């Protein structure tokens, strides 16, 4: 597997179709857990537990200084920072443990 990968294209389509339900179930400030399903230089994509058709993104700028990107399969804990309607993604601020 390459170091960087995109999430499955089918999830991207489902995220678009479920956008209204995603916003309703995951308002800003909601605590979330999820699993990394894709990595890019700018951040990691997250499948959010309990909201299977949602696509989350933790941007590298939201990670603590000096932290490396989580690997595909790693767990993510955080909160909904905002909703990016232009690409149907939930932006996530990771918890700082």
TrEMBL record:
Domain of life: Bacteria
Name of this chain's protein: S1 motif domain-containing protein
